[in-house]
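TICKET: design request
STATUS: open
ATTACHED STRUCTURE:
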């Protein structure tokens, strides 16, 4: 019925056409899952999928506004309201051929009308003939909504999910639940495609760093000292030491192998703790780990091992130690005083204490002022800046004449006050240019504008809808509206912002972060620290929309981070920010432009972060907006699609700074032999000859030759040895990775998990300028690319709790104790047949000197423990991460 009832009346965009071309393939598993940024036409694509599925449909949206947009888009793009013959409904209790509803209404219907009976719910919609469920903005799903949605999956038919950002930063259990409901991603419409099509504007992300004030630094140092003090006291704690020494896993090791293999980290933590106390660990206790006791070394007792030891003792198995409760309670109290025990979790990272302290650093207020002053000077009257944060902080509203140092929490009102003071100073210096009048606040509960805008507001609002109160000591007014006029005041402020009466708008992420439409934004400052991937992406989406009549729009998005000066990599606030960039892609800052997600495109230092140097560089780059548009155009020209790839580094802590792309290990063995030979000959040998020429020749020419060769060997030995050991262990790693990629690809192809023809696909492995290696698959569908990368990542990451495992070792590897262990990807571990298929391809492409082990037997558990302990003793362990790059 739907196929005949309406058709799309406009030409399809390239990326939409690409998805629709393979529609039948995407729909073959009864799931359609589309990921696309705001402004990409997800709703229109959803309506076309609805038309092609051609069944009775229930569309679920997170809000009434978004629900109504579906109907509006249908009448705008597919069929006129007058000509529409399709029965429509907005009442979930009375389904029609197309029913538009909200998640809340479904939840209420299942709870109230169906009395929580999910079988009745399914029967109701089955009787109504619903065979197509559409989940819009599926990342919005709340806990109470899961149950009825999973119940609806039992209906015969298709489930379509549309989202801007899957909830990748949720707990693993939540992510798994999301994909179980929505199915694997069929297509991810990328930002570069939208920029290329002209649906999004050119834009650039920048990071502006600050440092904590003296009080915060002292707080951090105090926390570090307390943490170290606790660990030292735990090692010296005689009662706790006796308790661990008497633990059954240690005293009855041979009789409790199965529990040890189930909790290997805890068992190792016991050994590590007792070693730290000075106990000599018997060889038989270490042999349980399946390792050579002559070569194996237990790691040092640090925060990580304290967490593994105490988490199980104080939380998981606490009830087993009731007779020691008094002693354990004392340890718990000490942990709490440190701040390393919260919500039944032992955690020394100080996420709650340190991260909250850094994330809310008052010095970020100073950063915001510096950014706005910079952008104001550069953009002049064209500036349209929005600063988004999490809290309003009304308690600072009357702090008009207080010292700014006392307004020291990140929030809308503190930002407003700091900007008010900062902009007032600019007015004094500029003698006339008054950005202060262009400052405003817009939240769900607070609206502040300059008094000269009162006349604009009263034009729209009726007298009964608002009150205006002067903000004492300033030229600003507070506008309070009644509930019925709240949407009107948002529209008024938005229009004033678009027209330039307001140029700097401070608001909350809750109100303006999602759904707010103001294409005029060209500068966005993200002062939010509680935002998820989803919210971060939605907030950026406000700024990168194209603006009608402004084809040259370029947007700058500023991210704030406070450096922890006690840690080389910048600490938790920087780490959280870096993680945030996984949610979206952009163009690189410098050198040859490329488009990629993640933080690698910023080329941030991996050790000490110098605030002044990086901030100055960011400001210099941000000053030339037209250059950003050029970089986007150039980068887009280098590729066609966003390709998923796996990046990894076998020695991340010793990364080379030079942009080299050589084949690392096998060349290193030769390189050190020849390059250093030259160095030895030109530098070392002359010195040896000069200093010892007399004694050498007095003992004969043969002795002189032997002595020279010996000197060369001694000089070359250390680095040559390291290069040879790496080569023995990994071989030529680009070729090894290519072979492993072939194993994954051929195994998936034989299982028909990848159906694209082999001749259409290309497996690529390349060295990146920063020394990392990337492996990727092109020519496949988006779903197949993601599956390939996921399997390869599972294979290459350190073994954790693999069901099947491959041990790869040759004679040299055995001799040097350098056996490598690989987890068979989980998709091949359901049964032995699938695991054997993967193993067969491993022997074909990698090596037949490999063993497949099922780890759920006692011997298999022992091998698994051996593999895990192997990685504990591997220096500079392999680091992997998925990435999306425009190719």
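STATUS: resolved
RESOLUTION: sequence designed for all positions
ATTACHED SEQUENCE:
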């Amino acid at each position: 019925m739907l196929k005949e009832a309406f058709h799309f009346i406009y030409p399809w965009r390239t990326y939409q056409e690409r998805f629709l071309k393979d529609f039948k393939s995407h729909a073959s598993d009864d799931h359609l899952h589309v990921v696309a940024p705001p402004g990409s036409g997800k709703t229109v694509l959803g309506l076309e999928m609805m038309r092609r599925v051609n069944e009775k449909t229930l569309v679920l949206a997170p809000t009434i506004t978004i629900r109504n947009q579906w109907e509006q888009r249908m009448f705008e793009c597919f069929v006129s309201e007058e000509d529409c013959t399709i029965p429509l409904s907005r009442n979930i209790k009375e389904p029609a051929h197309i029913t538009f509803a909200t998640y809340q209404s479904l939840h209420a219907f299942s709870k109230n009308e169906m009395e929580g009976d999910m079988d009745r719910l399914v029967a109701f919609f089955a009787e109504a003939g619903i065979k197509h469920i559409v989940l819009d903005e599926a990342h919005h799903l709340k806990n109470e909504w899961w149950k009825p949605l999973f119940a609806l999956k039992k209906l015969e038919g298709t489930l379509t999910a549309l989202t801007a950002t899957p909830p990748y930063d949720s707990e693993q259990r939540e992510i798994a639940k999301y994909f179980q409901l929505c199915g694997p991603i069929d297509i991810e419409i990328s930002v570069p495609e939208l920029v290329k099509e002209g649906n999004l504007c050119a834009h650039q992300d920048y990071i502006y760093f600050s440092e904590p004030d003296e009080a915060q630094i002292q707080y951090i140092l105090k926390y570090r000292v307390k943490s170290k003090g606790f660990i030292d006291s735990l090692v010296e704690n005689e009662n706790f030491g006796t308790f661990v020494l008497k633990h059954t896993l240690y005293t009855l090791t041979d009789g409790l192998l199965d529990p040890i293999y189930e909790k290997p980290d805890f068992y190792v933590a016991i050994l590590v703790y007792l070693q730290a106390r000075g106990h000599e660990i018997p060889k038989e206790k270490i042999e349980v780990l399946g390792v050579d006791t002559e070569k194996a070394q237990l790691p040092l007792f640090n925060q990580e091992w304290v967490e593994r030891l105490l988490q199980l003792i104080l939380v998981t198995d606490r009830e087993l130690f009731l007779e020691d409760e008094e002693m354990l309670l004392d340890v718990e109290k000490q942990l709490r005083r440190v701040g390393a025990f919260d919500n039944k979790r032992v955690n020394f990272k100080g996420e709650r204490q340190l991260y909250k302290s850094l994330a809310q650093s008052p010095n970020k207020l100073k950063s915001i002022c510096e950014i706005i002053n910079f952008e104001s000077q550069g953009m002049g009257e064209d500036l349209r800046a929005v600063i988004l944060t999490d809290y309003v902080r009304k308690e600072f509203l009357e702090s008009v004449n207080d010292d700014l140092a006392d307004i020291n929490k990140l929030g809308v009102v503190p930002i407003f006050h700091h900007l008010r003071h900062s902009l007032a100073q600019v007015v004094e210096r500029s003698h006339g240019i008054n950005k202060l009048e262009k400052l405003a606040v817009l939240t769900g509960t607070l609206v502040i504008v300059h008094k000269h805008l009162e006349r604009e507001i009263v034009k729209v609002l009726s007298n009964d809808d608002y009150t205006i109160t002067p903000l004492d000591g300033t030229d600003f007014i507070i506008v309070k509206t009644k509930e019925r006029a709240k949407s009107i005041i948002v529209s008024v402020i938005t229009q004033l912002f678009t027209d330039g009466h307001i140029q700097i708008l401070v608001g909350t992420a809750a109100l303006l972060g999602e759904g707010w439409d103001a294409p005029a934004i060209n500068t966005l400052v993200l002062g939010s620290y509680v935002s998820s991937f989803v919210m971060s992406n939605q907030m950026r989406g406000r700024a990168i929309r194209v603006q009608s009549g402004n084809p040259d729009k370029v947007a700058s998005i500023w991210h704030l981070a406070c450096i922890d000066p006690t840690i080389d990599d910048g600490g938790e606030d920087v780490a959280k920010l870096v993680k945030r960039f996984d949610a979206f892609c952009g163009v690189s800052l410098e050198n040859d432009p490329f488009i990629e997600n993640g933080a690698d495109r910023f080329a941030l230092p991996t050790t000490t972060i110098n605030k002044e140097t990086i901030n100055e560089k960011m400001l210099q780059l941000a000053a030339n907006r037209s250059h950003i548009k050029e970089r986007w155009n150039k980068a887009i020209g280098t590729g066609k699609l966003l390709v998923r790839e796996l990046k990894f580094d076998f020695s991340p802590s010793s990364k080379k700074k030079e942009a080299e792309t050589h084949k690392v290990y096998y060349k290193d063995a030769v390189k050190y032999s020849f390059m250093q030979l030259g160095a030895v000959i030109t530098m070392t040998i002359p010195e040896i000859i000069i200093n010892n020429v007399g004694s050498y020749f007095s003992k004969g020419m043969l002795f002189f030759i032997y002595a020279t060769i010996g000197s060369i060997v001694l000089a070359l030995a250390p680095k040559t040895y390291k290069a040879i050991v790496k080569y023995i262990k990994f071989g030529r790693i680009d070729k090894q990775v290519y072979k492993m990629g072939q194993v994954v690809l051929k195994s998936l192809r034989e299982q028909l998990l990848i159906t694209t023809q082999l001749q259409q696909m290309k497996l690529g492995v390349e060295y990146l300028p920063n020394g990392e290696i990337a492996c990727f698959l092109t020519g496949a569908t988006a779903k197949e690319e993601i599956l390939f990368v996921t399997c390869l990542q599972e294979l290459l990451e350190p073994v954790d709790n693999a069901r099947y495992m491959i041990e790869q070792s040759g004679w040299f590897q055995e001799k040097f104790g350098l056996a490598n262990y690989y987890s068979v990807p989980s998709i091949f571990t359901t049964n032995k047949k699938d695991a054997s298929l993967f193993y067969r391809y491993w022997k074909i492409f990698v090596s037949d000197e490999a063993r497949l082990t099922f780890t759920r037997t006692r011997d298999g558990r022992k091998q698994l423990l051996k593999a895990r302990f192997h990685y504990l003793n591997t220096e500079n362990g392999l680091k992997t991460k998925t990435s999306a790059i425009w190719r």
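CLOSING REMARK: The radius of gyration is 32 Å. Residues 585 and 597 are 4 Å apart (CA to CA).
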